[in-house]
Write a structure and sequence with these properties.
CATH class of the largest domain: Alpha Beta
Distance between the termini: 42 Å
CATH topology of the largest domain: Rossmann fold
Strand content: 5-15%
Number of strands: 10
CATH architecture of the largest domain: 3-Layer(aba) Sandwich
CATH superfamily of the largest domain: Nitrogenase molybdenum iron protein domain
Order of helices and strands: EEEEHEHEHHEHEHEHEH
Number of domains: 2
Oligomer: single chain
């Protein structure tokens, strides 16, 4: 969730304060990310509304009274969308009594509208399918192309909120996009040798990341999204991994690693904890460091499996 508040005082430039919910905290056109997740620019004062979002499951955030206060003072709220925050964000917005950031108001923005959304259900959705997202997979920021598109959308919205600073926000976006273009080349180069490899993931957090780098997600530790692993599903998954020579499991930081580690041991492989969002470990403080971290771990696991002949 992103919140922006203009500070109308004697400051040289009025500032706007925002807090980012659910997913990727990023150093984009409006911000310089800091260790605690605070993003600051000359015209934007950004504070992320969810401390430690990188190691929390964004579906199940425990709202705090301090979140309501942050929403109350915002001029712009930026959410992930696709119902990722449906269990906790709508009540915060309502209780904030802030007309500027209510859905449909000029100060409400969903980042998903700018991104390529994968895994949109073709038919009806029911609870029997698990915790499935009826509008598509919300982890879209794990493709840098979507990160670029969302940053452009945020820059445009900031220019609407503060039109006098439109040129500033446009330049910040341009700087961000140029830096991202350089970083992408390095990430693509590191992952290129492993295109076509198969992995298993704990939860369905990685379709955009996998598609970007040519990795096939062949199965999941969860039998259905949000459903804990069962003995029968685990045995079937081990058999599948052995038959398809799959040796790497990607796990999100908020899931217990006991089962994925046991599965990995059974197939002579490795379970690694990748971060779906900024803040999952102290050193991952912005969007670029998120990809640096995940690409290094993912490529390293594939390399180790190659050395072991698997």
């Amino acid at each position: 969730m992103g919140l922006i508040r203009s500070k109308r005082n004697s400051y040289e430039h009025h500032k706007t304060t925002f807090h980012v919910s659910g997913g990727a905290r990023r150093g984009g056109p409006h911000s310089r990310s800091r260790r605690q997740g605070t993003a600051q620019g000359d015209r934007v004062d950004g504070r992320h509304g969810i401390p430690g979002a990188g190691y929390q499951d964004s579906h199940f955030v425990e709202p705090k009274p301090s979140f309501i206060a942050k929403v109350h003072g915002a001029d712009l709220l930026i959410s992930v969308g696709l119902q990722l925050e449906i269990g906790w964000l709508p009540p915060l917005i309502t209780q904030s009594r802030n007309p500027r950031v209510q859905p449909g108001a000029p100060g409400y923005l969903e980042g998903s509208q700018f991104a390529e959304i994968l895994e949109k259900p073709a038919g009806g959705v029911s609870r029997s399918m698990g915790d499935i997202h009826p509008l598509g997979n919300p982890h879209f920021w794990l493709d840098p192309n979507n990160g670029r598109a969302v940053a452009q959308g945020i820059a445009n919205k900031l220019s609407e909120v503060r039109p006098e600073d439109a040129a500033y926000f446009a330049q910040r976006y341009k700087d961000f996009a140029a830096r991202l273009a350089v970083a992408e080349k390095g990430w693509d180069q590191k992952m290129a040798p492993f295109r076509g490899r198969k992995v298993v993931t704990f939860h369905q957090s990685w379709p955009n990341f996998a598609k970007r780098f040519g990795i096939e997600v062949a199965g999941y530790v969860e039998p259905k999204p949000g459903i804990p692993p069962t003995p029968s599903h685990t045995l079937a998954l081990i058999g599948q991994m052995k038959s398809q020579n799959i040796r790497v499991i990607w796990v999100e930081p908020y899931f217990d690693t006991k089962v994925p580690n046991s599965i990995a041991n059974s197939v002579g492989g490795e379970a690694i904890v990748l971060l779906p969002s900024v803040g999952g470990v102290p050193e991952v403080t912005d969007y670029f460091k998120l990809f640096d971290y995940d690409v290094k771990l993912a490529a390293g696991a594939f390399e180790r499996m190659e050395k072991h002949g698997t």
